[in-house]
Specification:
The structure holds two protein chains of two kinds. Chain A is α/β, with parallel strands linked by helices. In chain A, 29% of the residues lie in helices and 30% in strands. Chain A has one domain: Rossmann fold (3-Layer(aba) Sandwich), CATH 3.40.50.300. In chain A, strand 1 and strand 2 form a beta hairpin. The radius of gyration of chain A is 18 Å and the shape is globular. The termini of chain A are far apart. Chain B has four domains: 221 residues, no CATH class; 176 residues, no CATH class; 216 residues, no CATH class; 161 residues, no CATH class. By secondary structure, chain B is α+β, with helices and mostly antiparallel strands. Helices cover 58% and strands 18% of the residues of chain B. In chain B, strands 1, 2, 3, 4, 5, 6, 7, 8, 9, 10 and 11 form an eleven-stranded mixed sheet that branches. A six-stranded mixed barrel of chain B has the order 13-15-20-17-19-18. About 2% of the residues of chain B have low confidence. Chain B is built from 24 helices and 22 strands. The chains are: A alpha/beta, B alpha+beta. At the A-B interface, helix 1, strand 6 and helix 2 of A face helix 13, helix 20 and helix 24 of B.
Chain lengths: 228, 827
C-alpha cells in the first residue's frame, strides 16, 4: 500500500469577535503519493485552510488526520520531512542565484552533490542558462519554475501548491503548470494544488470543489474551461 | 493642504508608535538628546555661576602677574593708569612641623591688600568667618584648614621657615583674589610682605602679582602698556575670560569627544533603521502618487511624522535632563562652592536645535530617496545606489559637524577617527575573508555550520552592515572600558617602575648640587636629572600667540603661561624624532628648537616656523627644525620645547632642574631636614602623587562609568536596530527553510550559528581595533606604554561572544515565529 494522507470527518472553524465561523464540517479526503489533486472553489471557502490541514501545518478543530506509510500509521506531523511547498509569491531568497536557491534544501541536508543536482533540476525546468541569475533578474514565470525545482529537488513525497500560477500570465501559467505536473509525476510525488483556475484544475487526476462547507468530487475534463 | 498632511502624519505616527523601528529610533534620539542637553545645562550653570561671582571673586579689576617685580619706574607708569595697586608675592614651598611636611602656596601681602572683595578668616576650624581688613601682621602666618590638618597644627603654634619663626594666628577661609591666580588645589598660607623680604628667597622663584583698581578705559590703556613694556607678563582683567571658566571649557570640550563617539553610534543605529524607514516611506509615497497626490505629499507627511516624533520626545528629554542636571550640580558642588541649581529652560533650546539639525541630516537620505525614486521603484522599495551612498555621506557630514563643534584636542580626535576607520576596514576584510574561506573550506562538508557560512557569504552585503554596526559598538565599548582599567593599573605601575618614588619638579642649581651630594651621602639613587629654564612663547611668525591660534586646546592654554625650555645635545632617550632633524654637535646655529608633535598639531605649527620666546626679560627667536614625541620606557620627564645646549652661551637666565629619585622606607625621614634647609625645593612624594592620582581616577571613573552606560545602552539599541532592519528577510528565510521540511529548532540552531559567527567576527574586529587605538592613543595622549593583557582580552572576547550571541538570538526570536502559513498568506 503506497504512502497516503488520511483525513476523516474533519471540521475547521475559528472565532472572530465572539462569533464562530465554520469553514467546513465532516470532510473526508485521502491523498495518495504519485497522484495529483486540485481543490477549487470561491474565495473564502477555506481552500488554503484545507491545504494547511492536509499538509499537517495546522490542527483540525475536529475529526482525525493521519499519515500512513505502508502499514505504519502516524500523525500528520510525520509528514513534515516528506513534503514540499510552492507559493503564489514564489518566495525565492533574493540574495541567492537561481542555482543556489534550488540547492538550498540539499545544502541544508548536507548533500555534497547539492549544486550538481540543482543544476540538473534547473535544466529540467528549462532554466539551465539562467543558473547564475538572481530572482530580480528573472520573470515571474521563470521565478516560479525555479521555485518548482527547489520544491522538488530534495524529492519530497508530497507537494502542496497554493495558487502557483496566480501571479502569471496565461502563457507562463500553462508552461509552469505543465512543468509542475510533469515533474511531480516523474518524481512519483503527490501534488495537492489549490487554484481558482479550472483549466489548471483539469490537469489533475482528482479535482475537488470546496463550496458552502462541502467538498465535492468533480469528474475530470467535464467542467467548463474558463480563462484563468 | 498642510493641515491635512499634518493630520495624516499624526495618524500614521500613532499607528506606527509601537512598531519596533519607531521605538528604536525614539531610544536613539532620546539617549543622545539627553546626553547633549544635560552636558550643555551643566556647563551653562557653571559659566553663569562664574559670571555672577566674578566681581566678588576677582579681588581686583586687573592683575598683572610675572616672575619679576616691577621696577620703580614701571610701577610709577602703572600708577598713572590705575587708581590703586596692591602687590602679592607667591612661592611654592615646603612647610615642615614636628616631622610632618606639606607642600603649600605661601603668599605674602602688602598693606594695600585686600584691594576688593572680602578676606575672610577665623580663629578656629569651626569658627564663624570674620572679614579682615588687611593681611597678617609681621611674624604671623594665616593658613587654610587643609594645611592645618595636614601638619597637625593648632592656632598659636609656631612654625619655622628657613629658620624664621611664625605664629599661626588665624585660619584662612577665603582670599578675594584667589580665582585670578588660576585653578589650583595647593594648600595655602599667608604672611606679611615684610617677612617675605627677610626669608630671602631668590627673586626668580617668586611670582609677583599686582592687583589694580581700574575702569574699562584704564584697563584698555593698561593692556596696551603691558603689551608694549611687559610682553611676557600675564594680564588678567574683568573683560577677559575667567581662568576657571577656561578650565571648565576644556573639560567640557573633552566631554565633546565622548559626544563624537555617541553620535557615531547613533549614526550607525539610525543608518540601520533607515533601511526600514526607507521601505515604508517609499511605499506610502507610492500609494499617495498612485492616488493622484503630488510628490511632495509623501515627503511632507514623512517630515511631519519625523517632527512629531522629535517634538513628543522633547518634554521627556527636558524632564530627565533637568533631573540629571540637578544631580550633576550637586556632584560638582565639591569643586564649585555655592553653585546652585536653577531652572534653565531657554538654555536647552540651542543644544536641542543643534541635535535636531544633526538628526535631520541623518534622516535626509530617507527623504531624498523617497523624492528621487519613481513610482515603480517606490513600490519595489528598492534602495538606489545614490541613496545608499548619500546615507553614508550624510552620516559622515553630520559627524564632521559634531567633531568641528566639539573637538578640543585635534590630534586625539584625529586618532580616534583613524582608529574607527581602521576598525571598519579591518572588519570588512575579516568578514569577507573569513566567510569566503569558511564557505570554500566547508563546501564539501555536510551540516548546519557549512550551510550557515554559505548563507552568510551569499548575504554578505546585508550581513556586513550588521557586523560593522555591532563591531563598532563593541570596539567603542571595549576601548572605553580598557581606558578605565588601564589608566589606573598601568599608569601607576609605570610611574613606580621608571620614575622613582619622589619627584623634584623645580630645583635651583645650588639646590640640585646639594641634593646630589645628599643623595650620594645617604646612598639614594637619582634616576633622572634634566635641566631647564623658564620661557614664555610670545610670538609665532611675528604674530602674537592669541592671533596665531584662537582654537582652545590644552597646548594653547599651557603655552599662554611660562613653560620649561630644555636643552639636550642628543635626542633624549625617552623621545623620538618624528619630523625634521635633530641638531648636530658641530652645528653652530643655536636658534633652533624641537617641538612636541601634539603641540605642533594643536597649534598648527610647521617646520620652519619662527617662535619668539621671552626669557629673562629678553626676546629670542628660534626656528622649528624638528618635532619629537614621547617614547615610553626611559622615564617620564619630557619637555615640549627643546633647544641645542649651544644656546646657553647666548641666553642669560636662571637654570633649574627636574629630577626623580628613589627612596627606601627608612630614607623618607631624611626629607624633613632637606626641606627645612630648602623650603622652596619643589618635591612631591609618591604618596602625594598616588593621592592626587587616585582623586583624579575616582573622578574619571565616575565620568567614564556614566559614559560606558550610555554606550552600552546605545550598543544594545544598535544591535536591535540591525536585527530590526533584517527582520523581514530573516522571517522569510526561516519560513522558506521550514517549507523544505525542517523544524523551527533547525532555524533556531542556524540562528545561533549565524550569531556566533557574527559575534566572533565583531569580537576579533573590536579587539584589533582596540589594540590599534591603544597603540595610537595611549602613547601619545597618556604617555603610557600599551601592553595589552591577553588573558583580559580573551575573557573580553568570550564575553562579547556570549553577550552578542545571547542578545542577537533573543532579539531575533520574533523572526523565528515565522511559519509556512505566512508565506502562503503573504500574497
Amino acid at each position: 500500500m503506497s504512502n497516503h494522507i488520511e483525513l476523516k470527518g474533519i471540521s475547521q472553524s475559528f472565532e472572530i469577535n465572539d462569533s464562530k465561523i465554520t469553514l467546513f464540517e465532516h470532510l473526508d479526503l485521502s491523498i495518495y503519493q504519485g497522484q495529483s489533486y486540485t481543490i477549487t472553489g470561491p474565495s473564502g471557502a477555506g481552500k488554503s485552510s484545507l491545504l494547511m490541514l492536509a499538509s499537517g501545518l495546522e490542527q483540525v478543530t475536529s475529526g482525525s488526520s493521519s499519515y500512513i506509510q505502508g502499514s505504519q500509521i502516524g500523525p500528520l506531523s510525520d509528514l513534515r520531512t516528506d513534503s514540499g511547498f510552492i507559493f503564489q509569491q514564489f518566495h525565492l531568497l533574493p540574495e541567492l542565484t537561481a542555482i543556489n536557491n534550488v540547492a538550498l534544501p540539499l545544502k541544508l541536508r548536507g548533500d555534497n552533490q547539492a549544486l550538481v543536482k540543482a543544476e540538473a533540476w534547473l535544466n529540467k525546468v528549462g532554466l539551465g542558462h539562467r543558473r547564475d541569475h538572481k530572482p530580480s533578474e528573472l520573470s515571474g514565470g521563470e521565478q516560479q519554475r525555479v521555485a518548482i525545482a527547489r520544491a522538488l529537488v530534495f524529492e519530497p513525497k508530497f507537494i502542496f501548491a497554493d495558487e502557483p500560477t496566480g501571479n502569471l500570465d496565461q502563457a507562463s501559467a500553462n508552461e509552469v503548470a505543465n512543468i509542475l505536473f510533469d515533474c511531480c509525476l516523474e518524481n512519483g510525488a503527490a501534488l495537492v494544488l489549490v487554484t481558482h483556475c479550472n483549466e489548471l484544475a483539469s490537469k489533475a487526476q482528482h479535482t475537488f470543489l470546496l463550496a458552502n462547507g462541502q467538498l465535492i468530487t468533480k469528474a475530470n475534463n467535464t467542467q467548463e474551461v474558463l480563462s484563468c | 493642504m498642510l493641515a491635512t498632511n499634518f493630520m495624516l502624519a499624526w495618524q500614521f505616527y500613532m499607528q506606527e508608535f509601537t512598531q519596533p523601528h519607531q521605538r528604536l529610533l525614539r531610544w536613539v534620539q532620546g539617549v543622545l538628546l539627553l546626553f547633549i542637553v544635560t552636558l550643555s545645562l551643566s556647563s551653562h550653570s557653571i559659566q553663569e555661576y562664574l559670571q555672577q561671582n566674578l566681581q566678588g571673586l576677582l579681588g581686583a579689576d586687573a592683575v598683572i602677574s610675572q616672575k619679576q617685580p616691577l621696577s620703580a619706574e614701571q610701577l610709577k607708569e602703572v600708577s598713572l593708569f590705575v587708581d590703586k595697586v596692591a602687590m602679592t608675592q607667591q612661592i611654592q614651598t615646603m612647610l615642615t612641623y614636628q616631622g610632618n611636611w606639606q607642600q603649600a602656596q605661601l603668599k605674602a601681602v602688602d598693606h594695600q591688600y585686600p584691594l576688593q572683595g572680602e578676606l575672610v578668616t577665623s580663629t578656629s576650624l569651626q569658627g564663624i568667618g570674620e572679614t579682615s581688613l588687611s593681611g597678617p601682621e609681621v611674624g604671623h602666618m594665616w593658613i587654610d584648614a587643609r594645611l592645618m590638618a595636614s601638619l597637625s597644627l593648632d592656632i598659636g603654634d609656631e612654625i619655622s621657615i628657613a629658620n624664621k619663626a611664625f605664629t599661626v594666628s588665624r585660619l584662612l577661609q577665603h582670599e578675594p583674589d584667589r580665582l585670578m591666580e588660576g585653578h589650583s588645589v595647593a594648600m595655602r598660607a599667608m604672611i606679611n610682605a615684610s617677612d617675605m623680604q627677610q626669608l630671602g628667597f631668590s627673586n626668580d622663584l617668586i611670582r609677583y602679582r599686582y592687583l589694580m583698581n581700574a575702569n574699562t578705559q584704564q584697563i584698555d590703556e593698561l593692556i596696551a602698556w603691558q603689551q608694549e613694556n611687559l610682553p611676557a607678563a600675564v594680564l588678567h582683567h574683568k573683560q577677559g575670560k575667567h581662568p576657571l571658566a577656561l578650565f571648565w571649557q576644556r573639560t567640557e570640550n573633552f566631554m565633546g569627544l565622548a559626544s563624537i563617539i555617541l553620535f557615531f553610534m547613533a549614526a550607525i543605529a539610525i543608518e540601520q533603521l533607515s533601511q526600514v524607514f526607507m521601505r515604508k516611506e517609499q511605499f506610502f509615497s507610492a500609494v499617495c502618487l498612485s492616488l493622484g497626490a503630488s510628490k511632495s505629499t509623501g515627503i511632507q507627511v514623512s517630515i511631519y511624522k519625523w517632527l512629531i516624533g522629535i517634538l513628543l520626545l522633547i518634554p521627556i528629554v527636558i524632564v530627565f535632563s533637568t533631573a540629571f542636571h540637578w544631580l550633576i550640580i550637586n556632584f560638582l558642588k565639591e569643586t564649585f562652592v555655592n553653585l546652585a541649581w536653577q531652572w534653565q529652560l531657554p538654555s536647552m533650546f540651542k543644544p536641542i536645535s543643534f541635535v535636531i539639525v544633526v538628526f535631520a541630516i541623518f534622516n535626509a537620505p530617507v527623504w531624498f530617496a523617497t523624492y528621487r525614486s519613481s513610482i515603480a521603484q517606490q513600490f519595489r522599495g528598492k534602495q538606489t545606489v545614490i541613496s545608499h551612498w548619500l546615507s553614508k555621506l550624510c552620516s559622515i557630514l553630520a559627524l564632521c559637524i559634531v567633531a568641528f563643534v566639539y573637538s578640543d584636542n585635534g590630534l586625539l580626535t584625529l586618532m580616534m577617527v583613524s582608529a574607527i576607520m581602521l576598525t571598519i576596514a579591518l572588519m570588512v576584510v575579516i568578514s569577507w575573508g573569513s566567510l569566503t574561506l569558511g564557505e570554500s573550506v566547508t563546501q564539501h562538508v555536510s551540516g548546519l555550520f557549512p550551510f550557515a557560512l554559505f548563507m552568510m557569504k551569499q548575504r554578505l552585503l546585508s550581513k556586513s552592515t550588521q557586523i560593522l554596526g555591532i563591531g563598532l559598538c563593541a570596539f567603542l565599548l571595549l576601548f572605553t572600558l580598557m581606558l578605565l582599567k588601564d589608566l589606573g593599573a598601568s599608569m601607576s605601575a609605570y610611574q613606580r617602575q621608571h620614575d622613582g618614588n619622589a619627584f623634584i619638579s623645580q630645583a635651583s642649581q645650588k639646590q640640585m648640587s646639594f641634593v646630589e651630594d645628599w643623595s650620594e651621602e645617604h646612598n639614594i639613587r637619582i634616576r633622572q636629572v634634566k635641566p631647564y629654564m623658564h620661557a614664555k612663547l610670545i610670538e609665532v611668525n611675528g604674530q602674537s600667540l592669541a592671533e596665531f591660534s584662537d582654537k582652545p586646546s590644552e597646548s594653547l592654554a599651557t603655552l599662554s603661561k611660562s613653560i620649561r625650555l630644555h636643552w639636550s645635545k642628543t635626542i633624549p632617550t625617552n623621545n623620538r624624532v618624528v619630523e625634521g632633524r635633530w641638531w648636530q654637535e658641530k652645528n653652530t646655529n643655536w636658534q633652533q628648537v624641537s617641538i612636541e608633535q601634539e603641540v605642533m598639531t594643536d597649534l598648527g605649527l610647521q617646520l620652519g616656523d619662527e617662535l619668539a620666546f621671552f626669557i629673562n626679560n629678553k626676546s629670542y627667536t628660534f626656528e622649528i627644525t624638528a618635532s619629537h614625541e614621547f617614547k615610553p620606557g626611559a622615564g617620564s620627564i619630557t619637555f615640549w620645547v627643546q633647544m641645542p645646549p649651544s644656546a646657553l652661551t647666548h641666553i642669560q637666565a636662571s637654570q633649574y632642574y627636574m629630577a626623580s629619585i628613589e627612596l627606601d622606607e627608612a630614607q623618607w625621614s631624611l626629607l624633613a631636614p632637606l626641606w627645612q634647609k630648602f623650603p622652596t625645593l619643589r618635591m612631591v612624594s609618591l604618596k602625594e602623587i598616588t593621592q592626587r592620582f587616585d582623586k583624579t581616577l575616582a573622578m574619571i571613573t565616575k565620568v567614564i562609568s556614566g559614559f560606558s552606560l550610555m554606550i552600552i545602552l546605545l550598543a544594545g539599541v544598535v544591535i536591535l536596530a540591525s536585527i530590526n532592519a533584517l527582520e523581514s528577510k530573516e522571517k522569510k528565510k526561516n519560513s522558506v527553510i521550514m517549507s523544505f521540511g525542517f523544524s523551527r529548532a533547525t532555524c533556531l540552531k542556524l540562528n545561533i550559528i549565524e550569531w556566533l559567527v557574527t559575534a566572533f567576527i565583531t569580537a576579533i574586529g573590536a579587539i584589533l581595533g582596540t589594540y590599534i587605538a591603544g597603540q595610537l592613543i595611549y602613547q601619545s595622549q597618556f604617555s603610557l606604554n600599551y601592553n595589552p593583557n591577553f588573558i583580559w582580552l580573551a575573557l573580553t572576547l568570550l564575553m562579547i561572544l556570549s553577550l552578542t550571541t545571547a542578545l542577537g538570538v533573543w532579539a531575533s526570536r520574533s523572526s523565528l515565529k515565522s511559519s509556512i502559513r505566512q508565506l502562503i498568506s503573504n500574497t
